[in-house]
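Tutorial, part two.
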Amino acid sequence: MSKIGIYLFLIILCCFFIPIVFTNTIKHGLVNEMNNIANITQENIISNTYDYKKYGTIKLLHADTGKVEELPIDEYLYGVVAAEMPATFEVEALKAQAVVARTYTIYKITTGSKHENADVCTDPNCCQAWISKEDRLAKWPAKDREADWAKIVNAVNSTAGQIITYDGKPIDAFFHANSGGKTEIPANVWGGTGYPYLQVVETAGEDAYSQYASTVKLSYDDVLKKLKTKYPKVKIDFTKDDDIKIIEYDDSGRVKTVKFGNIQIAGVEARTIFGLKSANFTMVKNAKEKQITFDVVGYGHGVGMSQTGADTLAKEGEKYDEIIKHFYIGVEIDNV
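Running the prediction step on this input gives:
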């Protein structure tokens, strides 16, 4: 073989092997990098060694399948916190949510569950929202998944065993998305006499969140149609300003009573009928468009801890126990 032929052969050989070497190097590098991320995440997870004794496991009813699953209480709480509060919120807000969710769970167990064979269910309209780790990770961006899950696990594990008590008993730890600046008392939402630890409290800064304000526009026909599902005999003269108006507000600034023609209903009922995010709303009638605009402040029933309010306080440097005591009056944080 000539000298030139040998050189050509060596060049071709290099062109064949170099990509393989670099591909394997890159592949091994990526694998090592992913392993390092996983190891860092695992190393950063706070271990949970709390001995619950009596309440170490709970029976969870899956609302979508009807199946009951038994699992450790804090493992259940990973799924509750992951479903109920964004992982982007401050760590202290997530810790507060973990304690609130644990308290709510223990309260349900000790006062009697609504469910025959389970302590709690996954339906947020009945108990608390819950999501599995697999489903939660699938909904998050790949680059954030492990770190965000570790953040939630740490919030639960670092507060293991802790619940909120009033007079030595677990409280009914209500919570909601955004108070609109002021929380609500239970009596204005569900009636009854309420609870001494659930009062109207103020939190600044909640207007910085997307949950703070919303708008619902309904035609005159839709307003009447929705009201007739509950009040078949309702009659409204939309040409009269006095036929649609807010009669009374409660101490938190939410609508207590509102008039629609020949009927008067509670603000919380109007919220349900018209699909509003809270009972803190105003109404504007547009005669030209034959339409009513509901401008709504806040998101949720407004009772107990505001989640965006908790995040606001955490950003101001408040710790989770201080956040909890801001929203629940006269309480203590005790071990189960």
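The first strand starts at residue 57 and ends at 61. In part three we will examine how such features are distributed along the chain.
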